[in-house]
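Encode chain A's predicted structure.
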Amino acid sequence: HPGVAARMFGLLAEKQINIEMISTSPIRISCVIRKGRAREAVKVLHQGFDID
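Encoded structure for chain A:
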C-alpha cells in the first residue's frame, strides 16, 4: 500500500535516518539502514504506527 510506504519513509526522514536500500512486495516493505541507527528506527516506526 503506497500510503504505508510513504508514512514509513516520512517517519524515518523526520529523524534523519537514511534508507540505503528498499524492497517491496504486495505484503511487505523492507529497507536497509545503517546498523547504528537500527534500534532508533525500530522505535520510531513502532511509535509512528502505534505498535506495542
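The mean pLDDT is 95.
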